[in-house]
Protein: Succinyl-CoA:3-ketoacid-coenzyme A transferase subunit A
Amino acid sequence: MDKVVPSAAEAVADVVSGSSLAVGGFGLCGVPVALIAALLESGVDDLETVSNNCGVDAWGLGMLLTAKRIRRTTGSYVGENKEFERQFLGGELEVELTPQGTLAERLRAGGAGIPAFFTPAGVGTQVADGGLPLRYDGAGGVALASEPKETREFDGLTYVLERAIRTDFALVHARYGDRHGNLVYAKSAANFNPLCAAAGRVTIAQVEQLVEPGELDPATVHTPGVFVQRVVHVPDLDKRVEKRTVRTTDTAAPAAVTSDAAPAAAGDETRP
Structure:
């Protein structure tokens, strides 16, 4: 029952080239950076990732992207990553864009054993009708486009069929975890982490604080240990704030100034 492994490198040792990964995080919040860095060091490539976004340049999943280790990615947001744009438009990266709520439900369905579901999101657009560029040819043309999806009417409304997502591995970040794999996420760092944790056939969790079984209140557990196969203790993390914010009025408390390059304060899990 003890699922703790000594290092991030050992935790991802059986991730091979060509593996599919569900990766938690939203922007720079709740990203399993230690596990991603271990994958980068391992040298695996040709990866397929599923995540809300693909990190930023040279951080988070952006580290793997910059090293050209990702072949295909499924996500909802592609901004703030110049290398992502370059690879996609240059025909080096295959990209499946999906509405954010649909992505969340596809992951949830995968974890729940539901093969597919109908949703109104995307009806009447290329999401349902097909034609979304999945890969460019590097010369401005589309080398591969999405296929039309099945639609059906229920009570006079049209819905599109979306398939669940199930991946070989899931990489997630949690504030607390015990040796049995029970996880607790902190505030907005939960984001896609619980969904990814359930969708992976092998789920690997990096945790900031490792506790003994019984120390977590069962009522506060977000991901039960049955979904988690490995736990890595990573107490010292580089937590970054995505946007620099400065208060412009002098009528309130002094402004907190952060930078993209500086780690956030210890314990800060919220986005500015």
Remarks:
- Residues 1-115+164-238 form a domain with the Glutaconate Coenzyme A-transferase fold (CATH 3.40.1080.10).
- The radius of gyration is 19 Å.
- The CA atoms of residues 243 and 260 lie 6 Å apart.
- The chain has seven helices and 13 strands.
